[in-house]
Design brief:
alpha/beta, 7-stranded mixed β-sheet, 5-stranded parallel β-sheet, 16 strands
């Protein structure tokens, strides 16, 4: 979101201090006048570059890196050296750079965080900070913060507890809030809630940067989160809070416990649900079916699986079905088979999406294969984090039951995908509508090239945060996320469907985020939750207000 562009910015920093401030540094683009007035003479090469020339240099060096993690480190180094140039390059080459800045490459960056660490970014909070939480949060410039992504590092992607290395996730997501959602860099704050780790590899690593203690649990953990939320409310009263990569039980507990205290949402639960619902709507349209009549099996009952199920149930109810009718169209599986509400010891977060025992009375077997044969699903969605969870038998059966089965392998990173597109195509004789969570290259099968939509949460969370922030939403509700899903589905055009895609292209993410933001604003206004309701073309207003990287003229402050 833009500030009014000033013709001149008066700065107190000079010389090397100016070059070492990533928010101010222009590198070789400082003009001759600026070099004279700001003590930069002799500190830079003679030629004065423009931003386009610098982006071209970045692109050459980026493509020269040997591996994805080398590219990630290069871009992170650029971000810590010159934010304007970093975002100019990322925005103009988003489709190429997004998999490097975020999934799937960020998984390796998380695992190697303590060994790759070069410069600090964001806020690291530990239980020791609880008694001074407001003061510690105030140590970062936070007057303009509009969005915070925070993690306690336990449920990172499909790789689990990664300790303080989980900070790479908020950093990456907030880069996309800027690139796709149009927030200014200074409006974004990544937060690591470092409560220790149970990852023995990290505890035994002499270079590990986090708290070297077992992970905090129980009442002490709850007290720490309470302290963080109280400090957040006082220091960052206008910010949206995105909960990110918490463990299953804790993710739902925090979302429910604090959603009325701070304007917040959980991207693993709600963002994943929204983009998956949009993809299912697109797949149904591509197959010539009605979304309201889809029958869906969800493989995986963690945060993502349960969140997606809740999103589907809400979307089906918006189509006119009752909750009971909707539940007869969605079946969720964990490692023990179908979730049934009478299963002993079933956690509450799973029980809310479990199939009523009355529905399965007399069914006999409750394995995935048993249920596929009985309910004849149209869509199979993998959210388990386990490669091979969608196997040949399941896909071939789905293809026997449907002319165009929807097969979604949604888990990240790439190594955790439930199946790979090439196999799904082979097992379905090229008829499956395939959507993935990680990026996959097109596949040639029987002389035809097939492309696949990547149902990445980046289609949703930047727009949700943008719309909520601009309208001053006091809460982010399930209805807002369902509205976001429906709007995302509407943005997929005929040309996309002709290529077998169910989502718009990544290159259009800024326009997509503006539309998603508008849908969220419209929903907030309808629900009476917008402190700053707006009228007119909301999507255009949001698009026009997005941050655009550029260099402002500097003058020495008097």
């Amino acid at each position: 979101m833009k500030k009014p562009d000033d013709d001149i910015l008066y700065v107190t920093a000079r010389g090397g201090d100016l070059l070492s401030d990533a928010s101010l540094n222009k590198g070789s683009a400082f003009t001759n006048e600026e070099r004279i007035e700001l003590g930069l003479e002799g500190l830079l090469p003679h030629h004065v570059s423009n931003l386009d020339e610098q982006v071209q240099r970045v692109l050459e060096n980026f493509r020269r890196q040997a591996t994805p993690i080398d590219k990630h480190v290069y871009l992170r180094s650029l971000q810590d050296r010159n934010e304007t140039l970093f975002y100019a390059a990322l925005i103009s080459h988003l489709a190429e750079m997004m998999p490097i800045v975020y999934t799937p490459t960020v998984a390796q960056a998380v695992e190697e965080f303590s060994h790759l660490f070069a410069a600090t970014r964001g806020l690291y909070l530990t239980p020791e900070d609880s008694v001074r939480m407001e003061e510690v949060i105030g140590n970062v410039p936070c007057e303009d913060v509009r969005v915070v992504v925070c993690t306690d590092n336990e449920g990172i992607l499909g790789i689990g507890d990664q300790g303080t290395g989980g900070m790479a996730i908020p950093i990456g997501k907030l880069a996309l809030y800027v690139a796709a959602g149009g927030f200014r860099p200074d409006e974004c704050l990544p937060v690591c809630l470092d409560v220790g780790t149970d990852n023995r590899r990290l505890l035994e690593d002499p270079l590990y940067l986090g708290v070297k203690q077992p992970r905090l649990r129980g009442a002490e953990y709850d007290s720490f989160i309470d302290s963080f939320v109280e400090g957040f409310k006082k220091r960052l009263p206008n910010a949206i809070l995105q909960w990110e990569d918490f463990s299953r039980d804790i993710a739902f507990e925090n979302l429910i416990r604090y959603r009325d205290e701070v304007c917040s949402f959980n991207d693993d639960i709600q963002g994943t649900a929204s983009v998956t619902v949009a993809s299912l709507m697109g797949a149904a349209k591509l197959a010539g079916r009605s979304f309201a009549k889809e029958v869906i099996c969800i493989v995986g009952a963690g945060c993502a699986g349960v969140g997606v199920t809740l999103g589907i149930l809400d979307a089906l109810q918006s189509e006119g079905l009752s909750l009971e009718e909707a539940k007869e169209r969605v079946y969720v599986f964990d490692s023990r088979g179908l979730l049934v509400d009478t299963r002993p010891g079933l956690p509450d977060y799973k029980r809310q999406v479990a199939t009523p025992a009355s529905v399965v009375e007399g069914w006999g077997g409750l394995s995935l294969y048993d249920v596929i044969e009985r309910v004849r699903p149209t869509a199979l969605v993998g959210l388990s984090g386990h490669p091979g969870a969608i196997d040949e038998e399941a896909v071939r059966t789905m293809a026997e039951l449907n002319e165009r089965p929807s097969i979604f392998a949604m888990s990240n990173p790439t190594a955790n995908a439930e199946a790979v597109p090439a196999d799904i195509l082979c097992w379905s004789d090229g008829r499956a509508i395939i959507t993935t969570g990680s990026p996959f290259d097109p596949v040639e099968y029987k002389g035809k090239e097939y492309q696949f939509s990547q149902a990445n949460n980046v289609y949703v969370f930047p727009g949700v945060g943008l719309g909520a922030a601009v309208c001053g939403a006091t809460r982010i509700t399930d209805r807002m996320l369902t509205s976001a899903a429906r709007r995302l589905h509407e943005l997929t055009d005929d040309a996309d469907y002709e290529r077998g895609l169910v989502l718009p292209p990544v290159r259009d993410l800024r326009s997509v985020s503006a539309q998603i933001g508008a849908a969220v604003m419209e929903s907030a206004i309808r629900e009476g939750l917008a402190a700053k309701p707006a009228v007119g073309d909301l999507a255009k207003t949001l698009r026009d207000g997005m941050y655009q990287p550029h260099y402002t003229q500097y003058k020495p402050a008097k």
